[in-house]
Fold these 4 entries.
Entry 1:
Amino acid sequence: MPRQLRTGVDEQILDSAAALFARHGFEQTSLKALADAVGLSKAGLLHHFPSKEALFEAAWDHSRVLSSHVAEQVRPLPAGPARERKALELLTDIALDRPGLVALLFRSMTAPGEDPQQAQDELLLNEMFVVDPQQELERAIRIVGALSAMAVLTLLANQEGDKTTWRPLILRTCFDALGHRDAPGHH
């Protein structure tokens, strides 16, 4: 059972740590690098999380909670463009606020087999976008392309510090990548 997160401090630690784990993997991410990334000493970081393993698990758990929340919100919608737009909107908002956690979640696509619960992550994405990758390869590739574009573009939006201007452009790009024309009124 994941421990209860403290206020924003733990979430910031998790997001920064998740970004490092996503970029370098668990083995290549040192406790010192994690502490440096969040502006704490190693002892300070260990005050929040008892070990690198505990921090890694907490980051994965938090990423899964966020993706499960998106899946729950789109589940009542019928498969199709409206459901996919809603999933993209929710995922983009999370990615703009917590880019590290989203990068870690998407790592299951770029580093297969590293996380034992990867199949669960794939099922959540398949549920959000209603796709069977074995039967619909082109569509599955479009979804991965849209999510990859979202990951990169939200990172750039965060670097630029202009999430408001970037958000509608990111959504339009991702929706187009899925093969949908942007609906009128959605900018």
Entry 2:
Amino acid sequence: MEPETRDGPPRTVLIAALVVAAGTLIAILVIAALRVQPSAQQAVAIVSIPAPQAESAQCRALAGALPEQLGDYRRAPVAEPAPAGAAAWRSDGGGEPIILRCGLDRPAEFVVGTPLQGVDAVQWFEVRDVDRSTWFAVDRPVYVALTLPQGTGPTPIQAVSAVVAKTLPVKAVDPAPVG
């Protein structure tokens, strides 16, 4: 009787190689699927500040008209307890969010002679901080504040200005007296 000759590796080695290859393929597909699915937005904590008109009809109308996206920022959930009249957007890369507040008191810095900037028919007053700026819409029946992280660019304020202009009627600018 002649000894059996085999061409190639033993059967168990072939089966093991197929199992490893299939497992690797499945792992690659799972990783790819996880990268494609958008991650759940982390809730944004917004500190409560006085906003006596936050529950007004004007602020509710504005909140209902706000876009889901402001440039590279997507609407994010607001952590509870969420202040009335507030909304947030966060970039996919994380970082500081954009925060909108409606129904605030007139900003203390907004006095006669303060320079204003018009964006899409809305008059804004800017208060700068080290790493952000807050823009106040000052020609509407309620004050609207939009806080932007440094380097945000013009798209968010342009998008919000368009919504403010469509949603809230124009009112005469009313700065505080100097002094």
Entry 3:
Amino acid sequence: MKSVLVWDWSIRVSHWLMVLLFTGLIITGRYDRDYFDYHFYLGYGLSALVVFRLIYGFYGSRYARFSQFLKGPKVVLNYLKGMFNGKPKGHLGHNPVGALMVVALLLGMTLQWGSGLFTSDDLFWTGPLNVYLSDDWLSRLTWLHHVLPDVLLVLVGLHVAAVLYHELCLKERLVMAMIHGKKKVQQAPAEAIKAPRWGLIFSMLIALSWLAWLWLLPI
């Protein structure tokens, strides 16, 4: 068995930062209002990470690209059958079901932080883009912003359960792979897995520009 780099450092760092920021957002969103100002800034940070990951999904390293791990319904169903039989097909990057979870989490978090930019509690805090929509739309987005955390927590729970299944049943060390970036395979791929420098720089510049713009908005 050979150790092969699958997840470059930017994927690993952004993944664990998302974990920390999402946890902080859940806590500050349901805690006392004295800490609610942190909720905004944690949301800004999470939005920048999601923006980075979305762009990096098109211009990043091989196994970070959506084109590499998003598969059709037939491939997903075949993988699910293999899971239920206890013999799923191995994948160096995201498996077909894990790929759907990646998309679901990114989409859910985007809707969450996006709706938060327009949400107001009508007392102390108002999203920086609140003045640009009608009351009807603001009401819909506020409802969405309060409902989505529970949906996201369910998705996170499913994600953790899937990781545990791979760790305990399939002996695939996904947690450590997301720390050091390497997986063990019988035959290494011919092409080295590395982050294209221009793709990484471009993704970071867009994400940082987005974060700087948000930071300048009044709340």
Entry 4:
Amino acid sequence: MEANAQRRLRLAQWTAFWLTIVAYMVSFFHRVAPAALSIELQKAFSATSTELGSITAVFFFAVMAMQIPTGVIADTLGPRRILVAGCVTAALGAFVFASAHTVEVACIGRGLIGLGAAVPFVALLRLNASWFSARQFATLSGLTLLFGNLGSILSTAPLQMMSQVVSWRVVIGGIGGLTLVAGALIAVFVRDKPADLGLPHPDGQPSVPPRSRPSWVRQLRDVVTNARTWPCFWVGFGICGTFFAFTSLWAVPYLVKFIGLSKGEASMHVLVMILCHSVTALFLGRASDRLGNRKGLLLILGTVYLVSWVPMLGPMNTFSGESYVVFAIQGMASTSYTLIWAIAKEVNDPNSAGMAIGVTNTSMFMAAAILQPLIGSLIDRFGMQGMTYSVALLAAVSGVGLLAGMCLVETRGRNIYIERAV
């Protein structure tokens, strides 16, 4: 590739990456924000724990419902169009949620936010597959999580402190405005693939003419009927789903009501967990690419993640910092699920990468959507003891994810679908 074309390629690929990262950070902010605002939201809507869980769960149901459609659209029409539509929808939802005064309207707002926030991650992974070398995919997935989780970090202790200065409604509305700006920039500067700018793929892969590709229905059917896709699905359900359910809402109430921390200290614990998660995800993806190891690394960290729930079944010593250590370890170990995106892509047709990732992602949000109101009902029914039951439930579901991990295929960073076809 000539030097000028290489410079243009690098500029275009990183422009697409960083602008989409902004939209992804916003989606992560919305996912975790209810944890820092749980007390304010419960007061604002006079909500029970079950209703609070439902307000948060609507977001995950909407994200879950959009995963496969997003993958289909990203693979057929391209990720750029759906990214712009997602930003507009999420912004509208933020404005509705910020102005809501009843549980019902709050659910509508959170649902719209979820529909829009469902888009950036699958679209970004599709863009990564189109713009970057396959040898960089797991590394880029880790980098994506690192910066995406900055949105989560901003919605922990920083959001809790900000809510003491200005109303949470102002913050959510402001994030809605930022989302619109991100959508406009993506519409102007992002393209679906190098060929749209007359540039070659970094791996030298020839673009597949649209007429030679099977219909999206057949592509989706091939992904869903591929037995090697489903262990990825259940790893996401068990490990990522429990991590989402806990950090997105119940971690702060657990620390405040069960452990006896202040709201500020509880938010700081969640910040530590997410920060450890973000940094570890970056290094895990890079290590996986360099070592050519997916399954082994996932199982090691998945086992640590499962064990990390055990100390939470009883009161922890906050004075000695035991609680911070447990949250840090859990944050690091929870990154095990991030390797399933690379595996899902590598056991399916490259032209169906978005659909494979969409199917896998559905499980994560499905688990969070089911677990959050279920945990709320346990707390409403059993009070303080309900917290213990909730942690036990999260540990059990994590065990399901670890068992599924044992059924994964080790791809060693290669697309074994293509190798089998050849």
